Amino acid sequence: MNLQDGVQTILGWKKSKCEVQTPSHVVQMIEQGFEAAKGFGQALLLLDRYFLSVPALERPNACHLASETRMHLVTKAKSTWLPTNVPLQKKRDETDN
User: Fold this and answer.
1) Is residue 31 packed enough to be buried (19+ CB in 10 Å), middle (13-18) or exposed (0-12)?
2) Is residue 65 within a helix (H) or strand (E), and if so which, with residue range?
3) Structure pTM?
4) Could you give the CA distance from residue 78 to residue 84 in angstroms, rounded to a whole number?
5) Tell me: the pLDDT tens digits for 15-71?
């Protein structure tokens, strides 16, 4: 086990294959913010750049489909962040001509 594996590794110890996977704490926080926003109808959720991840960016869209409440995320992007669902383009080798 790597110390950087985080909570997902620990949660996996007690899970059987048929159990639903627990969302990350970032996604849980966004879901809780969305529940709080329902009282106002709309809200801004300000997050540190640590929270920038593909699941964190996808979760508000799923919440918006199920409710008329609107919550917008505001965060600062990491300078080294790359989308994990977009493949990187490889440099073309000069011998491939």
Assistant:
1) middle
2) helix 54-65
3) 0.56
4) 13
5) 666 666 667 788 888 888 888 898 888 889 888 877 777 888 888 888 888 888 898
